[in-house]
Design goal:
By secondary structure, the protein is an all-alpha fold. The protein has seven helices and no strands. About 65% of the residues lie in helices and about 0% in strands. Helix 4 crosses helix 6 and helix 5 packs across helix 6.
């Protein structure tokens, strides 16, 4: 099973290549800026940190893995992941995610 620590801030802050692969953003510093903007909109409802909840959403939007895959990666039940993705994606910061990803992916 994949451990959810792979998406921790500590791991990503020193690995811009991983940030770019999973989010489409060019660096951790940009990811951190997006997180600081979105954090007030992310309500914690699982054992994940707010940062991990945002990462789950980025991974879903960028790579579109199945909910089962995300559940394994983030050590969640499939039903928890499905509800979490919908809840986080439904927040105001979704439009920010989409605009940023479009800009990065189209450049």
């Amino acid at each position: 099973m994949l451990a959810n620590h792979n998406f921790s801030e500590e791991i990503l802050e020193s690995n811009d290549e991983m940030v770019k692969f999973y989010t489409g953003l060019p660096s951790y510093s940009i990811l951190k800026t997006v997180f600081e903007f979105c954090a007030p909109q992310i309500s914690r409802g699982t054992k994940l940190t707010q940062f991990q909840e945002m990462m789950l959403t980025f991974v879903k939007l960028r790579l579109n893995p199945s909910h089962k895959d995300l559940a394994y990666r983030f050590d969640l039940s499939v039903s928890t992941d499905n509800g979490l993705t919908v809840r986080v994606c439904g927040r105001r910061c979704l439009s920010v995610f989409v605009r940023i990803l479009e800009k990065v992916l189209l450049s």
